[in-house]
Amino acid sequence: MTAATILSRWNRFRTALRVDCSGMALVEFALCLPFVITFAMTGTELTNFTTTKMRMSQIALHVADNASRIGTGTLLSSKQISEAQINDLLIGAGLQASQLNLYANGRVIVSSLEPVANPNTTSRFKIRWQRCSGSKVWPSSYGVQGDTDLSGITANGQQITAPDDGAVMFVEVAYSYQPLISSAFVPRTQIVEIAAMTVRDARDMAGPSGGVGIYNTESVTASTCT
């Protein structure tokens, strides 16, 4: 084979190679695949995060609403609340969270904000009692049981106060987000949601002598915030 023949074949091969586009789609797909996968994982994780945050918000709202309604008594008497009722309230929140495992990964804090005195001429408030559930270490950011000189509870830029002869059930839900893929795709891993509801009916705020306003005739274990 002469040098001229070899050169001619090389030129034909080079020309064919230059115009051959049969593998272009595969190369483009290989180059784009990492970006497509990243976008898909980010979208999936953000959707799950948003859904989880919404569910925590709903749980906080439902616990506050139910806490404002509990109590035993008639329309003509002040309702008495019990440790058993509060425990049932917290159990219900765990059931509502379902597979999110609220109490393994989070904590629910329920506080009773009440006026220091009635009528409340000093505009000072106290947290008469506070109950918690969940293994997450999360002290309340808004006060603890026994605080007796509060101007109210400031949350999301708003001041929450309780009416005379009434109370506000303030609920704080803290949850450690459990990622589907990676926490690197979400803005934060700590979800904190709050809600507050004014007690609907007349309530026996004082409770049994020496207590914090909660009866325990059933002798159940109180969900204290220790």
Describe the model:
The longest helix is centred in the N-terminal third of the chain and has 44 residues. The model has no long low-confidence stretch (mean pLDDT 90). Helix 2 runs antiparallel to helix 3. With 226 residues, the protein is an alpha+beta fold. 28% of the residues are buried. A hairpin with a 2-residue loop joins strand 3 and strand 4. A four-stranded antiparallel beta sheet has the order 2-1-5-6. A two-stranded antiparallel ribbon has the order 3-4. It contains four helices and six strands, in the order H-H-H-H-E-E-E-E-E-E. The radius of gyration is 30 Å and the shape is rod-shaped.
The best one-word shape is rod-shaped
Portion of residues within helices? 25-40%
- Rg measurement, Å: 30 Å
Average pLDDT score: 90
Structural class: alpha+beta
The SSE string, one letter per element, is HHHHEEEEEE
Lateral strand order in the biggest sheet: 2-1-5-6
> Unreliable stretches, pLDDT < 50, 5 or more residues?
none
Largest sheet: 4 strands, antiparallel
Roughly how many Å apart are the termini? 93 Å
Strand residues, percent:
15-25%
Number-wise, the strands total 6
Q: What's the number of helices?
A: 4
